[in-house]
């Protein structure tokens, strides 16, 4: 390929970019600008996926100023063409340098291939048409981006992924209870946004110890290859002595994972991230982002800075209120400052959820609305006219369900935390095993009692350590081995022995306790345990987790500090020992959540060894009998912890004062029940409507399951591989080996390795065998395979024989496939409204379009292939007729295109107008919604409608059909 500045080329893979112009040629690279879509690409010279555009004499070309001309001669100077042409309008002769050609010009000419005897096989034409139809269907499919991940189809996750990923730049707090799959949800949303081109560069910020888990999950579940960034890696990009400015390391990759802990230490990296143009941010374990008005934490401020410049933000936490309501509010504000503008207003709003939940309940129960119901609903949506929706509900047609749903969405949107917060609970998801609490009461050793007295009398008793008697003891006896006399250790050893075949996770509050306990188990009984805490390097931690996970020859025990194991997946174990009791209900939930998560198949046993009448025993009793926090999740735990604060602290400091303790527990239980009921009827009920997706989510999962391995997909894929020349060997067990051959149509089929790959269309098989590729419509091999066909020349022209005794011999039919296409900037996402759309025209000999009477498949069944020689002869003989028919078709196509555009505009208008109405509605309750935001959306709508208007159409492929009696 010889490139020169000013030449016009098109992208082979991305036809919709329009006509590109070469703007730079370096030693090894070529830079091409696509003005129609405002995209620039840099390719390696040797392998640029570009096709040179050269027009021929008599071709009609379009000038970028809007007029057209017919080519008379092609002149060339230093590789760049100038067209001598006759202007259609003025008939004047003009010289048009190729640089001045319209950027929107389509360049596909099947008829020229026909005249040049480039006639392809009939089945290739069929595959091409199917590829176009499939491409269109996939662009418009509501399942797009929701099928290709390697995981089970869990309705609430699919619902969240679907509803969030439809948005442009979503900003959401994913707050499902522990272990319900927030990582998976975030991955699905990201993958979907990447797939449709809404997002190109994503950053995931996680606690240090979760980096590898994210890396692995993104790769194995979503085929997304992230890179881990740390100081060492970034230091490589520092400026050399000669350079003034180094490279911004964050610009060198587009999918990056890094640790929050690291960014805190290196604020200059935060600035680099801000400048690196990420468009998607995920922050895991977001409950660490503490905030108060006067003292926002460093972590909070850091993420806030990034959230200012990164359009899409997902915050993940199972315990959003762990650091209090204010921090929770601040995180919501960070996501949507217009919706959450004032803390006091937020607190008040929380108290008024009940009437909203009641209104939603009325709508959900499916009965006709009474006047009182209507008044109640209308009072909550004063800013808009709800009458039409009430009418639709009363009509009891298909519209009524839609109208009910619409009203529910609006109520939740205006009055709930709605679009910003998603939270699923075990109660709504269901199907989880039970949690069983085992309290083990032991005698407190006198050494601990003495140490406690000494430390208290010195005034050095830190409230935080009172649940770790071993730490207090070590404050005064640093060298004495506490585990020699601590009965909890003896109990643990005996327990381990009785559970020889079980994995046991032991959580201590501090890393020191975990380390010393490891020594105790090893020295006392020769038990080898893995240790896991925040002071280990990431690699050591991953190694420890893997050692624990290993079935054979792995560690039976994992000794972990509480913060060290946060977010980790240990659901293969069902025994949890809380060697120290976590000092807050949400922390307790995080610990239990290591085992109580999706994939846990057995009941979970939670063992709490504690000393009689110790602070730990009191707290355990309060958790269990007051909150029931061991056996069920306790969403109101933190609220009660705060409410009961003083009294609880009294009992923890005076653990032997039992007189009022029972009544205090009863009071707590009473409050817990009361709050639970209020939450269920109010806030949580609203969140649940919003988050679980109900019946619709079930149906979504069923639809995806049905689409998995559908015959349409399997047939199309196998046909595609056949055409490309990929060898296929069926291995049975729902898997097929694909290998490259020496006679492939293209040298490199995307994703096909030299040594071959194994594929399956079956989700369960893909879950069991992670080494094989799981093919769905979303898989890159299928998507790029479709692109390869639709943007290349395969199947563009063919000639076939119609065996039909009823038709005179030699009757000519012309089947034409036109494609309507729009080239627009990516941010408009026009493909969702107007994907490349094939229009089929079937002309009889008189030029009448009979496509609606004769279906593609019906006709195809009656066709037989012709030898190439025969086909060439037929074309030669019928050329004049074909030319005449083509001219007739071109007159009919604009009307057909008009219909396609009208529908596309309707789709665009209703989607974008809906968004606008929502903003206007929100503005009515929240005066801080900026007018500029509304104007921006209005502009997107205007531009989208205008761009659709500018869509072009082209003849993509054609089939000449000639009849015979046999
Ligand atoms: N759809 C699914 N199919 C199969 N496994 C799943 C699915 N969703 C989640 N899991 C598994 O369930 C476990 C919990 O998921 P995940 O880590 O995403 O939960 P989480 O909500 O982020 O938990 P935490 O609150 O502890 O951070 C993981 O082992 C994950 O691989």
Description:
By secondary structure, this protein is an alpha/beta fold. The chain has five domains: 8-107, SH3 type barrels (Roll); 124-134 and 793-964, no CATH class; 152-348 and 419-425, Tandem AAA-ATPase domain (Rossmann fold); 427-619, Rossmann fold, CATH 3.40.50.300; 708-776, Dihydrodipicolinate Reductase, domain 2 (2-Layer Sandwich). The protein has 34 helices and 31 strands. The strands form six sheets. The protein has a seven-stranded parallel beta sheet with strand order 12-13-11-14-15-10-16, sandwiched between helices. Strands 17-22-21-18-20-19 form a six-stranded parallel beta sheet, sandwiched between helices. A five-stranded antiparallel beta sheet has the order 4-3-2-1-5, with no helix packed on it. Helix 3 packs parallel to helix 4 and helix 26 crosses helix 27. It is elongated, with a radius of gyration of 34 Å. The structure holds adenosine-5'-triphosphate. Adenosine-5'-triphosphate binds at residues 151-152, 154, 157, 176, 178-184, 318, 567, 569, 593, 597-599. A motif (DEAH box) lies at residues 284-287. Belongs to the SNF2/RAD54 helicase family. RapA subfamily. Residues 163-338 form the Helicase ATP-binding domain.
């Amino acid at each position: 390929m010889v490139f020169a500045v000013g030449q016009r080329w098109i992208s082979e893979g991305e036809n919709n970019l329009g006509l590109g112009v070469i703007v730079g040629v370096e030693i090894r690279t070529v830079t091409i600008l696509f003005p129609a879509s405002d995209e620039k690409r840099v390719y390696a010279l040797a392998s640029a996926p570009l096709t040179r555009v050269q027009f021929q004499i008599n071709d009609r070309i379009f000038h970028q100023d809007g007029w057209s001309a017919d080519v008379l001669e092609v002149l060339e100077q230093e590789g760049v063409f100038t067209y001598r042409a006759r202007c259609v309008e003025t008939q004047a002769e003009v010289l048009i340098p190729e640089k001045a050609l319209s950027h929107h010009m389509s360049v596909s000419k099947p008829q020229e291939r026909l005249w040049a005897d480039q006639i392809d096989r009939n089945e290739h034409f069929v595959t091409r048409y199917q590829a176009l139809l499939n491409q269109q269907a996939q662009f418009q499919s509501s399942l797009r981006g929701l099928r290709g991940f390697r995981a089970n189809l869990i309705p609430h996750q699919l619902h969240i992924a679907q509803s969030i990923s439809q948005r442009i730049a979503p900003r959401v707090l994913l707050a499902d209870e522990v272990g319900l799959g927030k990582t998976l949800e975030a991955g699905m949303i990201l993958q979907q946004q990447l797939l449709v081109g809404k997002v190109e560069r994503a950053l995931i910020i996680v606690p240090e110890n979760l980096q590898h888990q994210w890396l692995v999950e993104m790769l194995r579940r979503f085929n997304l290859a992230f890179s881990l960034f740390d100081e060492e890696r970034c230091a490589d990009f520092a400026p050399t002595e000669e350079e003034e400015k180094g490279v911004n390391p964050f610009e060198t990759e587009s999918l990056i994972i890094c640790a929050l802990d690291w960014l805190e230490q290196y604020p200059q990296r935060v600035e680099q991230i801000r400048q690196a143009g990420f468009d998607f941010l995920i922050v895991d374990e977001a409950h660490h982002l503490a905030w108060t008005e006067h003292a926002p934490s460093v972590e909070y401020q850091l993420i806030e800075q990034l959230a200012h410049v990164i359009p899409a933000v997902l915050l993940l936490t199972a315990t959003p209120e762990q650091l209090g309501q204010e921090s929770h509010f601040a995180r919501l504000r960070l996501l949507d400052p217009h919706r959450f503008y004032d803390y006091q207003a937020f607190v008040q709003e929380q108290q008024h959820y009940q009437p909203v939940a009641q209104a939603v309940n009325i709508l959900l129960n499916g009965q006709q609305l009474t006047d009182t119901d209507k008044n109640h609903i209308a009072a909550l949506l004063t800013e808009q006219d709800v009458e039409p929706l009430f009418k639709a509900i009363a009509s009891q047609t298909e519209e009524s369900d839609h109208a009910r749903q619409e009203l529910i969405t609006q109520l939740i949107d205006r009055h709930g935390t709605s679009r910003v917060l998603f939270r699923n609970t075990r109660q709504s998801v269901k199907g989880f095993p039970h949690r069983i609490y085992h309290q083990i009461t032991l005698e407190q050793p006198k050494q601990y009692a003495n140490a406690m007295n000494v430390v208290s009398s010195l005034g050095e008793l830190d409230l935080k350590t009172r649940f770790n008697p071993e730490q207090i003891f070590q404050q005064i006896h640093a060298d004495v081995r506490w585990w020699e006399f601590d009965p909890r250790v003896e109990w643990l050893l005996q327990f381990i022995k009785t559970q020889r075949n079980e994995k046991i996770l032991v959580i201590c509050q501090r890393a020191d306790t975990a380390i010393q306990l490891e020594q105790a188990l090893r020295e006392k009984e020769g038990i080898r345990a893995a240790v896991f805490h925040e002071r280990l390097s990431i690699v050591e931690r991953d190694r420890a987790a893997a050692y624990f996970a290993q079935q054979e020859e792995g560690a039976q025990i994992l000794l972990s500090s509480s913060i060290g194991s946060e977010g980790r997946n240990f659901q293969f174990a069902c025994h949890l020992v809380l060697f120290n009791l976590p000092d807050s209900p949400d922390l307790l939930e995080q610990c239990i959540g290591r085992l109580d998560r999706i994939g846990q198949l057995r009941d979970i046993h939670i063992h709490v060894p504690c000393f009689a009448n110790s602070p730990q025993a009191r707290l355990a009793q309060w958790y269990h009998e007051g909150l029931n926090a061991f056996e069920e999740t306790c969403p109101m735990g933190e609220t009660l912890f705060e409410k009961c604060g003083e009294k609880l602290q009294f009992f923890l400091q005076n653990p032997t004062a039992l007189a009022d303790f029972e009544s205090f527990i009863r009071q707590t239980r009473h409050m817990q029940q009361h709050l639970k009921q209020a939450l269920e009827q109010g806030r949580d009920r609203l969140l649940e409507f919003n988050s679980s997706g109900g019946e619709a989510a079930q149906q979504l999962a069923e639809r995806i399951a049905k689409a998995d391995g559908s015959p349409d997909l399997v047939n199309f894929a196998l046909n595609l591989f056949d055409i490309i020349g990929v060898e296929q060997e069926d291995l049975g067990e729902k898997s097929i080996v694909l290998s490259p051959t020496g006679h492939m149509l293209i040298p490199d089929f995307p994703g096909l390795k030299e040594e071959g790959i194994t594929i399956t269309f079956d989700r369960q098989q893909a879950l069991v065998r992670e080494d094989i590729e799981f093919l769905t419509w979303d898989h890159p091999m299928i998507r790029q395979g479709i692109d390869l066909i639709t943007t290349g020349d395969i199947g563009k022209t063919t000639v076939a024989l119609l065996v039909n005794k009823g038709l005179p011999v030699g009757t000519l039919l012309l089947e034409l496939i036109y494609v309507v296409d729009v080239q627009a900037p990516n941010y408009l996402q026009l493909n969702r409204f107007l994907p490349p759309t094939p229009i089929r025209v079937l002309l009889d000999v008189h030029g009448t379009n009979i496509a609606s009477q004769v279906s593609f498949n019906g006709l195809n069944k009656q066709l037989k292939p012709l030898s190439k020689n025969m086909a060439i002869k037929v074309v030669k003989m019928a050329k004049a007729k074909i030319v005449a028919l083509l001219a007739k078709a071109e007159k009919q196509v604009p009307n057909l295109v008009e219909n396609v555009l009208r529908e596309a505009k309707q789709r665009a208008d209703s989607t974008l107008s809906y968004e606008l109405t929502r903003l206007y509605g929100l503005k009515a309750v929240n005066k801080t919604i900026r007018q500029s935001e509304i104007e921006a959306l209005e502009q997107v709508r205007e531009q989208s409608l205008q761009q659709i208007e500018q869509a072009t159409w082209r003849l993509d492929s054609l089939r000449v059909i000639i009849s015979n009696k046999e």
